[in-house]
Design a protein that fits this description.
Rossmann fold; alpha/beta; 2 domains; 4-stranded parallel beta sheet; 268 residues
């Protein structure tokens, strides 16, 4: 028995080394995209996500919970900062400056760019792509199931309510946008689309007062969007809608769906 102990110890050590080796095979990542920050934070192994974008550290703009964002370092996205972190992969927005991308790739770094998603399906595909890239498909599928469950619970029933989403700058979303897809799924129909308005068209205070929607979702802070005359519009319910719920997919969909479901319930 005594003679077998060294062999057992060697076998156990070998298993531990194999486990460490497999963990190290997962690529290290720096994310420069606030939307991918939140998704990667859900699935990255400890120490794998080396930094997130500085936008995710700003509670006014971040799609991440402040406590989650606090777990990670942040970068302003300069080539020098990224090189100092020495990641295997840089995840960027499709709007990354061409010169920055070229510099990173010339220095041997792999750059993967992800754009905004235009539907729930697009977002789920993006989650799966990021999970594949990060080396954890199972974590991606867990997040996908959480999103699908939240959407199922948030489904609207009965006749859809007409809603106008009044975004920063006084504009409305286009129909081919993630937030419009979420509105449809949670029991709303588009005020702007029914009036022939397209992506980023301006919705004036005068139009809202003269031709109000059933529900006005105010996501901006312009003077007109806070005007006291809105309190006097008959037959219109006005609700605030956090701008942080508009643009990103992934786990943001869960929070957006819950907020829209609550609004739909209160307005019914």
């Amino acid at each position: 028995m005594i003679r077998l102990l060294p062999l057992a110890a060697l076998l156990l050590a070998g298993c531990g080394a194999e486990g460490d080796r497999r963990a190290s095979e997962r690529p290290t990542i720096v994310s420069l995209n606030p939307c991918t920050d939140a998704i990667l934070a859900e699935m990255a192994a400890p120490g794998q996500l080396l930094a997130i974008s500085h936008y995710s550290k700003d509670p006014r703009a971040s799609s991440m919970d402040p406590d989650d964002a606090a777990r990670f370092a942040a970068t302003g996205g300069t080539v020098e900062e990224i090189l100092a972190l020495d990641p295997d992969i840089v995840v960027a927005s499709t709007f990354i400056a061409p010169a920055t991308r070229s510099a990173l790739e010339d220095l041997g770094l792999r750059v993967e760019a992800f754009g905004n998603t235009a539907s729930v399906e697009d977002s789920l595909e993006q989650v799966r792509a990021l999970a594949e890239m990060a080396g954890d498909r199972a974590a991606g599928e867990t997040l996908v199931r959480d999103i699908e469950q939240a959407l199922e619970l948030a489904q609207g029933s009965g006749t859809p309510l007409e809603a106008a989403l009044w975004q920063p700058g006084g504009i409305v979303p286009g129909e081919a946008s993630l937030v419009s897809d979420l509105l449809r799924r949670t029991g709303f129909r588009s005020y702007s689309a029914s009036r022939g308005m397209a992506q980023a068209d301006y919705l004036s205070l005068e139009q809202v007062v003269a031709d109000p929607p059933e529900v006005l979702l105010v996501a901006g802070g312009e003077t007109g969007q806070r005007h006291p005359v809105l309190d006097e519009v008959v037959g219109m319910r006005r609700e605030s809608f956090d701008t942080r719920l508009i643009y990103c997919g992934g786990p943001t969909i869960i929070r957006a769906a819950r907020r829209l479901a609550d609004i739909r319930k209160d307005a019914s």
